[in-house]
Amino acid sequence: MTLRRYVQLDVFADRPGAGNPLAVVLDAEGLDDDAMQAIARWTRLPETTFVFPAPSAEASYGLRIFSPRREVPFAGHPSVGTAHVVLEAGLASPRDGLLVQEGIAGRLPLRVDGAGATRSIAVRTPRARVLRIGEPEADAALAAALSGLPAGGLPPALVDGGRRWWLAEIRDEQTLRAATPDWNAIAALAKATDSMGVCAFARAAAGHPYDLVVRAFVGAPAVFEDAASGAANATLAAWLAERGALPGGRNRYTVSQGREVGHDARLQLHIDANGDVWSGGHVRTVVSGTLDW
Prior knowledge:
Number of helices: 6
Structural class: alpha+beta
Strand content: 35-45%
């Protein structure tokens, strides 16, 4: 019998239940691909991560990420949450304020600020690239997916930043929060463009403790609304920076996501002097124990 340390978290949250849940399996050596996929299917959480010894001298630890259906090359909230667990378990310490995870997406640094309950962790996300500027009037599939979502200032765009999303600015916060997505149309668009779906965003009204509201409508391989997506928000930050449309023209801003599905996450985005996007926030440990698999 092999007992492995097991932790469940709430990521991008200042309290349990607000963010995006994640399972982390430490001591993952000896688990093959089928076992990791089976565990991820069993947890029934958006993602489950598996921590391995550092595969190179530059890395703090090795990481693999699985959704209930497949292995995922990169995702933001699993990266941030796993770094929190690694720190809590004493498996690695920051060097010059950074941890380095190594996985399918290569070596990615994570910046660690503060300690304990006030600690914030952000991952430097893969560079994003614009694949296509959307023209709903000439693209029936895109128009159908965005039906009922009045457009804001920027055109929709298909952008790949480790995960591929359609990004669509919506007229205002109230409209976006009240929107009911056409799931069949979003699923069709996701499959036709090999994307995750539609990441819709709106600029927040003055006086809120956040700058943008985001809703991420996943159309493939499953159909659901993501409670808090670090990768989608990082892709969006890169798109806004490229268009000179960052909230208030600032290189740091806060996102509200998940309220429409019973969560209330806060994500912190930062575009550094090199144009790299850092996606992060706070993490809360909810369950600590052992996994007997």
